[in-house]
Amino acid sequence: MDLPYSDLYRQLLFRQQREQTILSNKNLEPSDRILLVELERMYPKISTQLTPVQVWKLAVYAGTRPETVSRFLTAMYEQGYIEYRRDTQSAIVDGKVAYQSSVLVKELSACKEPGTLTTKNTPRRAKKREQDKLRKQCTSCGGKLVKQVICVTCGEVQ
Q: Is residue 1 included in any domain, yes or no?
C-alpha cells in the first residue's frame, strides 16, 4: 500500500542524494558546489523551466558576493550545463540613470548528472589561477611575496 507521503519522501531522498553528490564532486570549484545546492534549494523549478533568479539573494544565502554568483552562472553556461540569460534595462529615475538587470536560468540535460559536472577548467578561471600564481612569486628569484610588494628572499620591490 502506497502512503500519500511516499512520493514526497522519495523526492526528499532524491534531493538529498543529489546535494550529496554535488558537494562531493571534486571537479567543481568549492564555491560552485555551495552555489549549485543553494540555487536548487531556492528555485526548485529551475530543472524544468526558465526561472528568474535574484543574484544578490542567492549570494546572501550562499555566503558569497554577487560577482561570484555571476562567475558561477557564466562558467556553468560556458560548459553547457545551464541556459543563462541576462538582460539589463536602464531608466531615468529622478534625473539619474537607474539600471536593473534580470537573470533567467534553466538547468539543461547535461546538469542532470551532478557527478560529471566540472567548472575548475573553464578558460577564464584557468587564466585567473595562472595570474594569481604569478602575483605571489618574485619575478627575479621566484621567492614568496609579502603583501605582493616585497620579496621575502631577495628584498626586491615588485
A: no
Asked whether the predicted pLDDT for residue 63 surpasses 70, the reply is: yes
What is the model's pTM? 0.70
Residue 53's φ and ψ, nearest 5 degrees, are: -120, 135
What grid cell was written down for 77? Answer: 553556461
Question: 94 and 152 in one domain?
Answer: no
103 and 130 part of one domain: no
Instruction: With residue 157 as reference, give the H or E element that holds it.
Output: none
pLDDT of residue 128 exceeding 70, the answer is no
Chain segment 9-20, per-residue pLDDT in tens: 888 898 899 999
126 and 61 fall within a common domain: no
CATH number of the domain to which 108 belongs: 1.10.10
- Owning domain of residue 57: 6-119
Q: What is the CA radius of gyration of the chain?
A: 21
Confidence tier at 52 by pLDDT (50, 70, 90): very high
Q: Report CA 6 to chain centroid distance, whole Å.
A: 33
Question: What's the grid cell of residue 37?
Answer: 545546492
